[in-house]
Amino acid sequence: MELTEEDVVEILRLIEESDFEFFRLRSGDLNLTVSKKGYVPAGFDGPASGAPVPAQAPPPQPAGEAPVPKPESGTGGAAGAQPAALPEAEARREGLTPITAPMVGTFYRAPEPGADPFVEVGGRVDADTTVGLVEVMKVFTSIPAGTAGTIAEVVAANAQFVQKGEVLYFIEPDGAP
Questions:
Q1: Pairing state of beta strands 149-154 and 105-108?
Q2: Mind listing the pLDDT tens digit for each residue in 58-68?
Q3: pLDDT digits over 11-45, tens only?
Q4: What kind of architecture, by CATH, is found in domain 89-173?
C-alpha cells in the first residue's frame, strides 16, 4: 500500500479530530503508528528500542506564550530538535499577535506558484485580509489575519508542512504601543 503525503496529512487530521489516543496501520511494508500524549496501549510491540513513538504534534503552550518556530528547511517539514528561542527574539515578539495555522496541512504564502505572497513584513492588513492558504487533500483554506495591523514577522516558509496552531506570522495590532 503506497500512501501519499496528502493521505498521511488526512489520516493525521482525522486522528487529531477524533477521540482516539492511539492509531496503528499496518499493510505490507507500511507501518504507521500515531500516539497522542505519549499514550501506548498494553501489548504494543513498538520500535526495537522498546520506547514508544510519541506523536509529532507540538506541546500545548501556556496562554500568552508564542511557540518557538521550527527552523526552515528545504523540504519544509523535517522534524528535529528545536533550538531555544533567543531572548532578544522573544522580546521583539512581546506585544505582537500570532497568526496561526487553522489545521494541519501545507502552508502557502502565495495564491499560486510564482505569484507574489499575500503579505510581506511591513504590509498593512485588516482582520479579513487573506495572509495565506493551508492545503489538505487538494482543498485550500484561506487564512485571514484575524486582527488589523502590520505584519511584523513571517515565521513559516512557503510550502512548509504546518501543525494546527503553529505560528505562521506575527502581527503588530493597530493601537499597539
A1: unpaired
A2: 444 444 444 44
A3: 777 777 777 777 777 776 767 777 666 555 555 55
A4: Beta Barrel (2.40)
Residue in the block written with cell 495572509:
131
d(CA 97, CA 144): 13
* Helices and strands (H, E) in the chain, number of each type: 2, 10
Rounded Cα distance, 158 and 172, in Å: 21
Place of cell 487533500: 137
Secondary structure (3-state) at 14: helix
**Residues 121 and 133: beta-carbon distance below 8 Å:** no
Query: Which amino acid belongs to residue 32?
Result: L
Q: What is the enclosing helix (H) or strand (E) of 11?
A: helix 5-17
Beta bridge partners of 38: none
Residue listed under C-alpha cell 511584523: 152
